[in-house]
Design brief:
alpha+beta; single chain; 4-stranded antiparallel β-sheet; 8 helices; about 270 residues
């Protein structure tokens, strides 16, 4: 019977996983239909060149942001559903359901002062386990890390941000611009005077027409031979900086599942 108390949690986790699948499919489709096209243009006097990016259609970043928001919501609410299920193990229905939520605290003092109304409605074993996995328990060691690095803190941060605005998705060229070719000058002497190359890579979020790199020269350039390739990474702008989706979302999903799995045995036993 008590296994049913965790059913809502599993539904939310499955929905979060489905959002990742849908997002990846949409990203792959856009990339296949809109390959990044680098364009080379010389600087004044041919004293260098810059590379701009172009693609046929803008990325649907707002749509992707909505999917990410739904993903974050389902993960965070899965944890709140877990807290409610744990309370049902103690008393079904819980006596004070409106104060039940899965606590996430960076500071022990705040946990002591605010988590009680929810934890008091759970079996003692569940309350102890929730305290054990709190971010403030991280001691800064290489194995444990610091509280700010905790996955629950990051999830809570994204969840709170999503309540106020659509998550911001940006395009990045994280590995730079790959160049398979060479730059030719009008003489060997000029080539020698321009070694090593003076190149600046612009790693900011990119859009159609953005400058990716600029190569400056002391002498006029004759030719830029070869091809450029721009590997794009779809990324999320967060309070922790710009992070690649292909790493960030699966990491959050995996950690949320890991947290939930620690409580599953409680739903297979009887608690007073």
């Amino acid at each position: 019977m008590s296994e049913a108390f965790i059913r809502a949690v599993d539904l939310k986790l499955a929905r979060a996983k489905a959002h990742i699948v849908a997002l990846n499919a949409s990203i792959d489709k856009w990339k296949s239909e809109n390959p990044a096209t680098p364009k080379v243009e010389f600087l004044d006097g041919r004293l260098g060149y810059r590379v701009r990016i172009d693609y046929s259609a803008d990325a649907p970043v707002e749509e992707w942001g909505l999917i990410i928001g739904d993903f974050v919501h389902n993960l965070r609410s899965a944890l709140d559903n877990l807290a409610f299920g744990l309370a049902r193990l103690h008393c079904d229905p819980p006596t004070r359901p409106r104060v039940i939520a899965f606590p996430i605290f960076l500071k022990e003092a705040e946990f002591r002062g605010k988590a009680g109304p929810a934890l008091d409605q759970m079996p003692a074993q569940a309350a102890r386990l929730i305290e054990t996995i709190q971010p403030f328990k991280r001691d800064g060691s290489p194995m444990s890390g610091v509280p700010d690095s905790d996955g629950l803190v990051f999830l809570n941060m994204l969840s709170n941000a999503d309540k106020h605005q659509v998550p911001s998705v940006v395009l990045m060229a994280p590995t730079g611009v790959e160049f398979d070719g060479q730059v030719e000058f009008y003489s060997e002497e000029h080539a020698r005077l321009n070694t090593p190359p003076d190149t600046t890579f612009f790693g900011d979020p990119i859009a159609r027409g953005s400058i990716l790199l600029e190569h400056r020269a002391k002498n006029p350039i004759s030719k830029v031979k070869g091809s450029f390739r721009v590997p794009l990474a779809i990324s999320l702008r967060t309070p922790r900086g710009i992070l690649r989706l292909e790493q960030t979302l699966p990491g959050l999903e995996s950690y949320a599942n890991l947290v939930v799995d620690q409580f599953r045995p409680l739903f297979s036993t009887t608690h007073a």
